[in-house]
Amino acid sequence: MSVEDYDVLDRQVQALFAGEDDLVCAMANFSALLNESMSDINWVGFYLMKNEQLVLGPFQGKVACTRIPLDKGVCGAAVSLHKTQRIDDVHQFKGHIACDAASNSELVIPLCRDGSVIGVLDIDSASLARFTKNDQIGLEAVVKSFESCLFG
Fold first, then answer.
1. I need a labelling partner for 133 at 20 to 30 A (CA). Which of 38, 98, 121, 124 fits?
2. How far apart are CA 132 and CA 129, in angstroms?
């Protein structure tokens, strides 16, 4: 997606979630919006922090791992490092969890409230190196707008 595409997506997020206060409802629609807006992805959704692990939340795609320890996988790394993880080849990532063997690249962005990570947005693709730096920057901005709409 281009910078302009991410700007349009950002405005859609702001319009769709302005005044929404139900996190699960918003995550479900946000997953659907991203699934419709992005090409060459095979899974998009959320994992939420519960009892020191990530638990599956709303998503679009095939059946997924239900729980992820914080010391495992790309999602666990995003939470532990409090930093977006953009992985060109998940099979080269130490501790990768293969929820879907068809996934080859992954982008995981922490979802934060009041400075604390409460979950992650996880996007997978069957293509190697699917996600660019432009995708990372654009999606990080869109996630910030999503957080602002829900958490102020």
1. 98
2. 7
